[in-house]
Specification:
Elements (H helix, E strand, L loop, with lengths): L16 H52 L20 E5 L7 E3 L20 E2 L4 E7 L8 E6 L4 E5 L5
C-alpha cells in the first residue's frame, strides 16, 4: 500500500489586524451612541425622586390642612415629612427661606443648588393653598432641576436639568 505524500498547508489561525480594527471601530461607534442615551435615562430616573417626594409633601400638606384647616405652616418641618435615603434635591414648602426648607440634600446631589426657583409660581402658602418645590442638580452641569407641586396636585418641571 502506497501512501500518498500530500502537502497540507496549515491554515493560519487568529484574526488579522484589519479585522480587529474593524471590530474596535464598531464597538466605538456603538459606545458613542449608547453612552449619552444611558446618561440621559439615568438623569430621568433621578428625577423620579423629586416627583415621589413632592407627592409625599402634597399628602402631608393635605393631612395638615385636614387637622388645622390651613396650609400655613411654620416651620415647614411641622408637616412631619422627610424623604428617606440621601436626597438629591432640596425640598421647600411655602417659600425658599431656611424656615421653609423641609430638608436639604444629604450629599446625594452632584452639586447642590442653593438658589431660589427660576420660574413662577415660587413656593408659597396661604390658608387656602400652597406650592412646594424641589430643587437639585442631578448631573454635573451648572443647571439645576426644579419641580413644583401645588394644592391642586399640578406637578410642573419649571427648569429641566435633563434637557439642558
Amino acid at each position: 500500500m502506497r501512501r500518498a505524500i500530500t502537502g497540507h498547508l496549515r491554515r493560519a489561525e487568529g484574526f488579522t489586524l484589519s479585522e480587529l480594527m474593524i471590530v474596535v471601530a464598531i464597538i466605538g461607534i456603538l459606545a458613542a451612541i449608547a453612552i449619552p442615551n444611558f446618561l440621559s435615562y439615568q438623569a430621568k430616573a433621578r428625577q423620579s425622586e423629586a416627583k415621589v417626594a413632592l407627592g409625599g409633601i402634597f399628602t402631608s400638606a393635605i393631612a395638615y390642612f385636614a387637622e388645622h384647616d390651613t396650609f400655613s405652616v411654620s416651620p415647614a418641618d411641622s408637616l412631619h415629612y422627610s424623604p428617606s435615603g440621601s436626597p438629591r434635591y432640596d425640598y421647600y414648602f411655602g417659600g425658599t427661606a431656611a424656615a421653609n426648607r423641609i430638608t436639604a440634600s444629604q450629599g446625594g446631589a452632584v452639586s447642590p443648588c442653593n438658589v431660589a426657583p427660576s420660574a413662577s409660581p415660587t413656593p408659597a402658602m396661604s390658608s387656602s393653598g400652597f406650592t412646594a418645590a424641589a430643587i437639585g442638580n442631578i448631573d454635573s452641569d451648572p443647571t439645576c432641576d426644579e419641580w413644583e407641586i401645588n394644592d391642586l396636585r399640578i406637578l410642573t418641571n419649571s427648569r429641566n436639568d435633563v434637557s439642558s
